[in-house]
Design brief:
alpha/beta, Rossmann fold, GMP Synthetase, Chain A, domain 3, 2 domains, nine-stranded mixed beta sheet, five-stranded parallel beta sheet, 18 helices, globular, binds adenosine-5'-triphosphate, binds magnesium ion, EC 6.2.1.1, acetate--CoA ligase, nucleotide-binding
Length: about 575
């Protein structure tokens, strides 16, 4: 079982061995790296931006390369500091401060990042929303959080139902709408131009809240997850050791700041480590992505399985048109990373893709393929030094290797959520087993301590008494040349309890026939196990996905059973 291994690449890690790091690591040592360790004055935005300018001499270093089809800019750390100071002053002028919720709802742009940092500098709680949200999704989140202000653009304004949001007093408009500003709307640019580039940062406590992020909605209604400044300890250290960030690195995290990855690893980890970060606006296109890597000479690239699968289906010829030899380190998060994708990455990038597992609720990476460790394709790696993760049963007993169970983490860790907004009962559910955080995912650990994701607890299929994780079946399916993507569910069956049903999207050029279906089923039977092969396969043009690119198995299941699909606010068009 799991004999495939990919050893460490020469030149990649400049790190201690995993075992040595685990044996000697202490979070308290990391705390000494922050200015608040001596001053007692905490603000994550200061540590990430201002400190690089004021204490580390990085003022003229590029912090952000922004590009979209219409705009290219290089923004230094000093400019990031001054622009976020200005926005902090704008907020103060309107009486917005500590603990209040200020949302951001706009496409990726420098203004988004300046606004975000400004919100944190006044001690308010930032609520980033993905630009593609429709009115209902925006209403739900703003109402739940009782947001007092929002930063947005004229194009998105009609999706903010002011009349339903009595708490919302200020709308900062980045750009002037046709017909001018409406009631409660303020001209972001004019306000910024008038504001001073200096500000007094609101100092606080490590436990002060800073970020309210809603989960992806893969399994149900999104939850408002509250994070605090203290998370910086983990963002910094995982940035250093898992992203392997080095001072001169150009780093590209492809996630939108509306999702946790786009904040923890799109803002905090790179800036706390003082590196240069690339943000690309606009839509996904394989050639543009490769061009971004080539043009900016990206060294470290953090993306998601859905993106890698799309790049893989776009074919190898496109990759060959670009010089991507600048890439040193590649990572993936958000969904299980199929072994086939890792093999493809080796072939076309000559690099390993390092899978890592974590959640909105964990705030930072928990389990990862540490850069100086062998990769076993299909495994999400091992717990970060300083973190104890385990597979436990429903009573909290740690299970021996190879037994499937609840993937759990010993609480606390630095970037752990502190609340589910206005939903204490939900929060308590995660901690219902004394001392543990229960992730809701199912996994097992092998004899060498590598963790293997199986599926969401509710997605694990029980067929003829065998427990089958949907991920293994999906991964085998996408190994077949005809299959671009696959989502697998358990379908109730009077005889077998459940049968395995696969929904697939075909790669271009393939026609769906009975022969092909039989061939694919045989392929899974031979490659995995007879009981794990789907009994039914249905072809769809596209699989239902969240806007962050995750396959929504609950929607497949609802379709299959003719049940209501539940909250679809985060589903792609
Ligand atoms: P919701 O909680 O609203 O249903 P979600 O769980 O998809 O949505 P996120 O917090 O964005 O919201 O995602 C965390 C989940 O993503 C994990 O619980 C896990 O199921 C999945 N995931 C993340 N990384 C990996 C990975 N490397 N391998 C397998 N699964 C992963
Ligand atoms: Mg979740």
């Amino acid at each position: 079982m799991h004999t495939e291994r990919i050893p460490v690449f020469p030149g990649n890690p400049n790190l201690k061995s995993y075992e040595e790091a685990r044996a000697t690591f202490r979070w308290e040592d990391v705390e000494r790296e922050f200015s608040w360790h001596t001053t007692g004055k905490v603000n994550i935005a200061y540590e990430a931006i201002d400190r690089n300018v004021l204490e580390k001499g990085l003022g003229d270093k590029v912090a952000l390369y922004y590009s979209d089809p219409a705009r290219q800019e290089a923004i230094t750390y000093r400019q990031m500091m001054e622009q976020s100071n200005r926005f902090a002053n704008v907020l103060r002028k309107h009486g917005i401060g500590k603990g209040e919720r200020v949302f951001i709802f706009m496409p990726r742009s420098p203004e988004l990042y300046w606004s975000f940092l400004g919100i944190i500098k006044v001690g308010a709680i930032a609520g980033p929303l993905f630009e593609a949200f429709m009115e209902g999704a925006v209403r739900d989140r703003l109402a739940d959080a009782e947001a007092v202000a929002i930063v947005t653009t004229p194009a998105l304004r009609k999706r903010i139902p002011k009349e339903d949001l009595p708490h919302l007093k200020h709308i900062f408009m980045v750009g002037i709408p046709e017909g001018g500003l409406g009631e409660g709307e303020l001209d972001w640019h004019a306000e910024m131009a008038e504001a001073s580039p200096e500000t007094d940062i609101e100092w606080g406590d490590r436990e002060d809240p800073m970020l309210l992020l809603y989960t992806s909605g893969s399994t149900g209604k999104p939850k408002g997850v509250l994070h605090v400044h203290n998370g910086m300890i983990q963002h910094y250290q995982t940035g250093k050791w898992i992203l392997d960030l080095r001072p001169d690195d150009i780093y590209w995290c492809t996630a939108d700041p509306g999702w946790v990855t786009g904040i923890s690893y799109g803002v905090w980890a790179p800036y706390l480590n003082g590196v240069t970060s690339v943000v690309r606006g606009g839509r996904f296109r394989p050639d543009d992505w490769y061009k971004t890597i080539q043009d900016y000479q990206v060294n470290v690239w953090y993306s998601a399985p859905t993106a890698f699968r799309m790049l893989m289906s776009a074919g190898d010829d496109i990759v060959k048109q670009f010089d991507l030899s600048c890439l040193r380190h590649i990572l993936s998060v958000g969904e299980p990373l199929n072994p086939e994708v890792i093999r493809w990455g080796l072939k076309v990038f000559n690099r390993r893709i390092h899978d890592n597992w974590w959640m909105t609720e964990t705030g930072g990476q928990i389990i990862s393929n540490y850069p100086c460790m062998d990769i076993k394709p299909g495994s999400m790696g091992k717990p970060f030094p300083g973190i104890h993760a385990a597979i436990i049963d429903d009573k909290g007993n740690e299970l021996p290797p190879l037994q499937m169970g609840n993937l759990a983490v010993k609480a606390p860790w630095p970037s752990m959520m502190r609340k589910i907004w206005k939903n204490e009962a939900k929060y308590n559910e995660y901690f219902k087993i004394e001392g543990w955080y229960i992730s809701g995912d199912s996994a097992y650990m092998d004899e060498e301590g590598y963790f293997w994701f199986q599926g969401r607890i509710d997605d694990v299929i029980n067929t003829s008494g065998e427990r089958v994780g949907p991920f293994e079946v999906e991964s085998k399916l996408v190994e077949h040349p005809a299959v671009a993507e696959a989502g697998v569910i358990g379908k109730p069956d009077p005889l077998r309890g459940e049968i395995i049903k696969a929904f697939i999207a075909l790669r271009e050029g393939y026609l769906w026939t009975e022969e092909l279906k039989k061939e694919i089923i045989d392929f899974v039977k031979k490659g995995l196990a007879a009981h794990a092969a789907p009994r039914e396969i249905e072809v769809r043009d596209k699989l239902p996905k969240t806007r962050s690119g995750k396959i929504m198995r609950r929607v497949l299941k609802a379709w299959e059973l003719g049940l209501p699909t539940g909250d679809l606010s985060t589903m792609e068009d």
